[in-house]
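ok so heres the complex, two chains, lmk if somethin looks off
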Amino acid sequence: MLPGAAISLQRHPRTRFVLYGDESVVLPVLDTLPALKAASTFHHCDVSIRMDERPSQALRQGRYKSSMWKTVEAVKTGEAHVAVSAGNTGALMAMAKFCLRTMAKVERPAIAGIWPTVRGESIVLDIGATIGADAQQLVDFSMMGAAMARALFGIEEPTVGLLNVGVEEVKGQDEVKEAARFLKENPIAGLSYRGFVEGDDLGKGTVDVVVTEGFTGNVALKTAEGTAKQIAGYLRAAMSQTWMARLGYILAKSAFDRLRDKMDPRKVNGGVFLGLNGIVIKSHGGTDAEGVAAAIDLACAMAENGLLGKVEDSLRLFHERLTTNGPTAAIAPETI
Amino acid sequence: MLPGAAISLQRHPRTRFVLYGDESVVLPVLDTLPALKAASTFHHCDVSIRMDERPSQALRQGRYKSSMWKTVEAVKTGEAHVAVSAGNTGALMAMAKFCLRTMAKVERPAIAGIWPTVRGESIVLDIGATIGADAQQLVDFSMMGAAMARALFGIEEPTVGLLNVGVEEVKGQDEVKEAARFLKENPIAGLSYRGFVEGDDLGKGTVDVVVTEGFTGNVALKTAEGTAKQIAGYLRAAMSQTWMARLGYILAKSAFDRLRDKMDPRKVNGGVFLGLNGIVIKSHGGTDAEGVAAAIDLACAMAENGLLGKVEDSLRLFHERLTTNGPTAAIAPETI
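and the predicted structre for the whole thing:
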């Protein structure tokens, strides 16, 4: 975390850090990073949350005192603009929900990830905050994702698609159809709804924001990561099989380096918790300093571009209009 | 379809074909393929199902007379061992269900696909027959997938995993947990249950059979296909950017050819409909002769290795035991 923060600080010299952790671990490392030390305030915490702790257990034992809780609380008290953690995802979400609470009218938060596409980058949510989502929640995710796209990509009216399968007249997934009908019939400012997209549209970058519920989103993300690793493995094996291939590899090394750079999962590290009264970013636990730096860069961008206000405004305006026009019953009748 | 059948016939010279279609289209092509013509019986059909027809509409208009119906019916009457079609998936499934009916005790059929992995190949189901599946259906899919793995890979006791997300204590997906509990507590002959797997396990080949419901399976499949295309695009762009890279590409061409061959989606073409009283294989509509040939090769393997009997035996033995021991209520109480 600390070397990652130091890298990000070089790119964003105005960032100030509030660090929470065990002093016996943090301070010796911080001493080797004088620029980061000068930009940081450190608070010792006795309790830290283990990666294998269940969210409920983490909340019981770590509330009010653990480094994870303190990090999230710093956003609540206004001491920090964004919280960044590479810890236990479930515990972090539980603490963030408990400490920051969901925004008015938002029932469930989502985790939004950045997906590299052939056209640049898209935002995909939910990639694993909760399982299942009703039509109202999918509409909320659409607005929150669009707000994040406006903050991150600087696009006025990001395109949004609902993830679906290309099979007609199938039973189930009524919530996706319901959400689609609603988005089609109720144009929302700052969001251009483009209909259904399928799994292969993710990599194509067909839309700026792809909306789905957390189970499918998480499986899609991990499947894409797995496929990329699988192909990288094939490529490595193929390039070392004959001396001609090895020679070719050496000649084309700069091209392979560019390819590796393009496929580098560290560059899109950072899941953004959306729908809470504060921004929390989850870095991949298994990444390195470069990956952490990318998550902190993302945190800086989200804070500087006013993500939270954009999400709040979208949701408020939208729900106000809903209350005035009263078509809520059309979205998810079973929940009202 | 016809050049594909001709290629497969060279590899399986004992195959006999019963062809259904429009004579003005089929016969001129068949005349150019004398070996296939000699191995085939042709039946003219006036009606053909369009790719954009809704399943219910296709069934209404194409039942008893369309080429698609006749193809499936040939399996029912015993004239053919397997039906192969590259047509409209939804229509084919609707006709297959109507004509062949689901096996006793099977509520819903599944489509099983072959997934290339770093260790070889796995079977993934359901990749889009129906959306959603309860615990009982997931257990049925596990048995049907294992039976197909026995028939296709010749493994005595294929390993089976349930697709899940690595998030603890999340709401929803109770049916996956329920199915897991059942598979753990009730050892099934010819199937080695290995617990939950995640999206990145698909490409790793962690288990021989990955079980999930049709929405997630379809999204995962298309996401993997999309990611593979995306990386192939990056690779092509990188290898043509500088003359050094182009020279390297030429030297390593045989390695790149092997890679392309390994990633060739045509080699794993063919979705197998499981749970019906007959084998139907769906070829990708957008494939070429090589892809069709792979789907027909798969059909030959499934027929020769007695897939249907293996699935029937597994299901019968299992459901008999369930009836005797009576733990059905433990699987899916809400459906009983």
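quick notes: Residues 101-335 of chain A form a domain with the Isopropylmalate Dehydrogenase fold (CATH 3.40.718.10). thats all i got rn
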